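@channel sequence for tomorrow's demo:
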Amino acid sequence: MFGKTRDPVCGAKVTKDSRYFCIYGKRAYYFDCPACRATFEGKPEQFAGKGKGFFERLTEGSDGRAPKSCHDMKH
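structure tokens (generated this afternoon):
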């Protein structure tokens, strides 16, 4: 098994052997589902190298509670 990383869209932990990945700016990004990959590919500059996942950005300015899964939300 390969190392672990985080999905840049939803922040979920994924392994680097995920079948959902893409290359952007000479770097590989790994995703937990095809919806997260599609969201990233639509606006890669929004997610690449930001350090915060989608849920972390979503909770900023809210009550601080993140959804339990990216699958609970529409991308």
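heads up for whoever presents: The helical segments are 34-42, 44-47, 54-59.
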